[in-house]
Amino acid sequence: MTDNAHLLKQHSFVELGARQRARALLDAGSFRELIDPFARMTSPWLPKQGVVPQADDGVVIAKGSIGGKPVVVCAIEGNFQGGSMGEVGGAKMAGALELAAEDNRKGIPTAAVLLLETGGVRLQEANLGLAAIAEIHAAIVDLRRYQPVIGVVAGSVGCFGGMSIAAGLCSYLVVTQEARLGLNGPQVIEQEAGIEEYDSRDRPFIWSITGGEQRYASGLVDAFVADDVAAVQQHVEHLLHKGKPEQERSSQYALFLQRLGQVDTTTQIDPAAVRSLYQGEQP
């Protein structure tokens, strides 16, 4: 098969909505959505601020199986409020993860897949959103003791803010070329440090620092895949069958703090320096 023929057979994962992504990952016929849009679990705070809510609050929760293994999928809709996490959507995700942990304690080995397209906390819901994200963090740490929690950052929103911490707590992370992963978004960095430090309009530079390929080369994620539904599904299935990692990445904080301590903050960092830093090479 020629390269062009292969491309014609690809189906973009990035172009799918949250519900479509969840359905695409699960085994055929196993998709079952919990608290779907007909439940009308909307944010009570957005209408008060003149924002039209979404019936599922931008978070899709589905149970099913991947490669025959029971999983719960939590998918964030990046097209609604930039994938921001509010009280309702955060509670749906945290509750799903908590119930998965309870399943494991009852002898039902349920893993989790998080489809992360989010800018972090929803500013309109402030502390309520932050509390929800904290509950998600705690639920991930609880569940990963039993089964792997796999995060997928595909694009085009990326994963930032408090939800990037959720990504860092996952047992494994899968990214595409279009993905971005970082604690602070480009516009926030530019606002605080100036355009000379970080130009949010310089897309090649941004992706070279926080893009999927760079994060994979830096050892901060576990799989770098093509923007293809089958490729993403196969890698997620592989990681589920692999089971829990021998050591969680988040438990290696001393190593990462030591490397970050080597950063020369007097000059603007470049892609090569980022890669060398995380690979443990001397700057």
UniProtKB/TrEMBL annotation:
Domain of life: Bacteria
Any one GO molecular-function label of the UniProt entry: transferase activity
Transferase among keywords: yes
Pfam families for the chain: Carboxyl_trans
The entry's keywords: Transferase
Record domain CoA carboxyltransferase N-terminal: where: 1-254
Name of the protein described by the UniProt record: Malonate decarboxylase beta subunit
